[in-house]
Design a protein that fits this description.
The complex is a heterotrimer of chains A (51), B (573) and C (174). Chain B is mostly helical and 573 residues long. Helix content of chain B is 67%, strand content 1%. In chain B, strands 1-2 form a two-stranded antiparallel sheet. Classes of the chains: A mainly alpha (51), B mainly alpha (573), C alpha+beta (174). Chains in contact: A-B, A-C, B-C. The structure holds protoporphyrin IX containing FE and copper (II) ion.
């Protein structure tokens, strides 16, 4: 957090002051981690080999 | 109003006849936003009342000694209750909060009046469509409408309209914060309440996108255009809507906690970076916990389940625990500075408990934290969920989050919205003062009854726990019946609290004495203790520390007790 | 104040009790994160979600074969079917019953398959209160070891239409 950007803001504050970046991250992370991964898991369910 | 405009602080982008200065806080109020805040708030209260009447009948049906409704009406009104409460009441109120936070606190006009109309009309028409479909009798599918259970197409269409209408409102919010920044109506970072509202709005976007992805194919399927919808796919995607929307509620509720802390006792956040950081953790990680509903489902594996149900290693729980500290700590510091510096809890004992804005807010904090938080994390533990899935423990949990927490916080802020935005005075202030206790107390009792009944195995969404007509005689322990009785009593009390709220609000909004041009009459006298007994150190909050240690202990005890109960079950893999 | 723009330089590290609490909360979150994987390796109750795709017709056929081969009695007009120890048992959920009645021996391990013929159902074993989701199109396999004997009711705890409350079944353990 010590590295200062030219305009004097720290990167963490830059993130918090940027709703658009937060919006993108907020959409992408849960969609990949929960939704897309979940769909892939379903897609990989094998057919039953009923003995 | 021209004089008021001149006295406004710098900047601002309001057309001159479209703004007034608040007589109490001197904040600028965009008149267009004010109109839509009012309309959404009124719509919200109407849906709350509809859902509340249904709630009373449900409580009286699940109370075996009463068993009020027949099976068909029980499921019909359960569908009605879930949707009117969880979706229509909550979303309308949230749009009102978003319009308030963006325009008033950023000193800007609302970006688009026509978009606000479109959103409002879509939400209202959609909600009426859903309710009509339910009463039409072909949509007894409960709020989750799990496929292949099929409702009439109007039901799904109505939900889509509500979701898209809400999305329009949320986009209007983003457009408003965009023009505020562009027109430089504020300096530096946005206020904390706006930051929290932005977190809620971001989560709402993800939620509503999931809603569209799941509901549009389901609508087509109910119309016969699509052949088949995979039930597991439906569950994953639907809970992207159903659970993520609860996270919108959490963000909105926490923002209102901060807002009410400021309005009632003048508290300020101890450390803005910590509070904002906690909201960022919500934005990034809270949504993956939709997996809570799928922990004992076929189709997905344990790695997916554990990673997602734990909010990526409990980072969102960390965030809630942070808010759970900073909110009471900021109250403690504010009260100590007012002179209530004696002992551990002098600040709490002397807080304005007769102010419904404060009591509602603090009860919401306690009920949500101690009730909803602890149960939620425990029941959302992958293995422990085996003893909780679809039992009454689940409604027992969420009636202390979204009802005792969010709904009560929304009720509390109403005691400021009506005088400040509607500019009307409440009648029967004594009743206003007891309303939060009645509602909070009733809901807590009901949730306790539900949770304990659920621990006996009593299912949720179930009309008859005697299983009349079933092939095999089955029933529950007498203890479960006692618990359901407690639930029923709690439901009646909570209903009275809800009804009182609706009556007080309607009386004030439609028939109240206008208070324009005057500062709002305070709910309580400014608390004044022994001034300057000592310097107050902003980093000393011993009372709050004790509270959170008690909390952590209770959490750990409940959590490990559940693991212990789990270890008594049959072995299963 | 939470309603005004914060003064510049608000980005500060937490101090004092706030810092202490964040540390403690973080430790608690790590403990809870480790608990679930730990139980997978050392605990005995896990929901692994083992499952296969299956059509209602195929599953129904398999259940019929299972019943024909292993029936040992009858209760309320429904066959009681004993799973061979270590073997596969097939339970069918439909509006509004569980079929057949399953018989098992304490301490033996079985692969109990569950699937639905129509809507979504809930498999809720009482009074133990063990609950699993049943979906049409998915063969959900529970590798299960009864550790107590008796007659255990199964109830449906996922809404499945107007007769949902009548949907009951039985597991017998000797
Ligand atoms: C007076 C207040 C309330 C009472 C007495 C009440 C009571 C109940 C009862 C008895 C049930 C049925 C549980 C079951 O049989 O499975 C229920 C379900 C539910 N309630 Fe409430 N409730 C109240 C307020 C609310 C509010 C304000 C919300 C949301 C903001 C809410 C959300 C829900 C949801 C989502 C369900 C589940 C519906 C389903 O299973 O499909 N409730 N409530
Ligand atoms: Cu069923």
């Amino acid at each position: 957090m010590s590295s200062k950007e030219p305009d004097g803001k720290k990167p963490l504050q830059k993130l918090m002051d940027n709703p658009w970046l937060l919006l993108v991250l907020g959409i992408v992370i849960p969609t990949l981690s929960y939704t897309v991964w979940g769909w892939i898991e379903l897609w990989l369910v094998p057919p039953a080999a009923l003995p | 109003m021209a004089s008021a405009v001149e006295s406004l602080p710098i900047l601002g982008n309001h057309p001159t006849d479209q703004v007034r200065a608040c007589d109490t806080t001197t904040l600028p109020v965009c008149l267009t936003a004010q109109k839509f805040i009012k309309l959404h708030a009124v719509a919200a209260v109407v849906f709350l009342l509809i859902g509340g009447i249904a709630a009373l009948t449900l409580g009286l049906t699940r109370w075996p000694a009463v068993h009020l409704l027949d099976a068909q009406w029980y499921y019909r009104l359960l569908t009605l209750h879930g949707l009117n409460m969880l979706i229509f009441w909550i979303l309308n109120f949230e749009i009102a909060v978003l319009y308030f936070a963006s325009t008033v606190l950023l000193n800007t006009r609302l970006a688009s009046k026509s978009a606000a109309w479109v959103g409002l009309v879509m939400m209202t028409v959609g909600a009426i469509m859903v309710d009509a479909a339910i009463f039409g009798g072909k949509s007894d599918v409960l709020m989750t409408s799990y496929v292949p259970l099929k409702a009439s197409p109007w039901f799904y269409l109505g939900i889509i309209l509500v979701a898209v209408g809400t999305l329009v409102g949320v986009i209007n919010y983003f457009a408003t914060i965009y023009i505020a920044k562009r027109d430089q109506t504020y300096k530096g970072s946005v206020p904390l309440v706006v930051f929290g509202a932005t977190a809620a709005a971001i989560i709402a976007v993800v939620t509503l996108l999931h809603g569209a992805v799941v509901m549009i194919p389901t609508l087509l399927w109910s119309m016969g255009i699509i052949e088949n919808i995979d039930p597991a796919w439906y569950r994953i995607t639907w809970w992207g809507l159903g659970h993520m929307s609860q996270q919108v509620n959490v963000c909105a509720m926490v923002s209102i906690w901060y807002l009410l802390g400021t309005l009632t006792v003048g508290s300020k956040p101890l450390n803005q970076a910590v509070c904002r950081g906690a909201f960022v953790l919500y934005i990034l990680f809270i949504n993956v916990a939709s997996a809570h509903h799928l922990l004992v489902d076929p189709g997905t594996g344990s790695v997916w389940k554990i990673w997602n149900t734990s909010y990526a290693m409990y980072l969102a729980v960390l965030a809630s625990m942070i808010h759970g500290f900073t909110v009471p700590a900021s109250i403690e510091v504010a009260m100590r500075k007012k002179g209530f510096n004696r002992g551990l809890f002098g600040w709490l004992a002397n807080a304005p408990w007769s102010n419904p804005g404060f009591s509602g807010f603090f009860l919401s904090l306690v009920i949500f934290g101690f009730g909803g938080g602890i149960t939620g994390v425990t029941l959302g533990t992958q293995q422990i969920n085996i003893m909780a899935h679809n039992t009454l423990r689940i409604p027992g949990h969420f009636h202390v989050t979204v009802v005792g927490g969010t709904t009560l916080a929304f009720m509390a802020i109403t005691y400021y919205i009506v005088p400040l935005i509607f500019q009307k005075d409440f009648y029967a202030k004594a009743l206003c003062r007891i309303q939060p206790y009645l509602f909070g107390g009733g809901i807590t009792l009901m949730a306790l009854g539900m949770s304990f009944a659920g621990s006996y195995g009593v299912p949720r969404r179930h009309w008859d726990i005697e299983f009349t007509g079933g092939l095999f005689a089955t029933g529950f322990d007498a203890g479960a019946h006692v618990m359901l009785g407690i639930m029923g009593v709690g439901a009646v009390i909570a209903f009275l609290g809800l009804l009182l709220y609706c009556l007080l609000v309607v009386a004030a909004v439609f028939f109240g004495r206008p208070v324009e041009g005057k500062p709002m009459e305070a709910w309580n006298e400014e608390p004044r203790g022994q001034i300057d007994a000592e310097e107050v150190d902003e980093h000393k909050t011993p009372g709050t520390l004790v509270i959170v240690f008690v909390f952590l202990t209770a959490f750990a005890v409940y959590y490990f007790a559940n693991w212990m109960w789990l270890s008594d079950l049959w072995e299963v893999r | 104040m939470s309603i005004y723009n914060p003064p510049e330089g608000w980005l500060q590290a937490p101090k004092g009790p706030e810092r202490l609490w964040i540390g403690l909360a973080l430790i608690w979150c790590i403990v809870m994160s480790l608990a679930m994987p730990y139980w997978h390796f050392y605990g005995k109750q896990n929901a692994s979600g083992e499952s296969y795709r299956v059509s209602a017709v195929d599953y129904g056929t398999r259940v019929r074969q299972f019943v024909e081969a292993n029936t040992v009695g009858e209760a309320s007009g429904i066959p009681i079917v004993e799973i061979p120890p270590g073997g596969d048992g097939y339970l069918l959920a439909r509006m509004w019953s569980f079929y057949p009645v399953i018989k098992m021996k304490m301490g033996q391990t079985y692969r109990l398959h569950i699937s639905s013929m129509d809507l979504q159902h809930g498999f809720s074993l009482q009074p133990l209160n063990m609950n699993f989701q049943v979906l049409p199109g998915y063969d959900h396999v529970l590798t299960i070891t009864p550790t107590s004997t008796g007659v255990f009711p199964i109830i449906c705890n996922e809404f499945c239409g107007i007769g949902h409350h009548m949907m009951t079944g039985r597991i017998i353990v000797e």
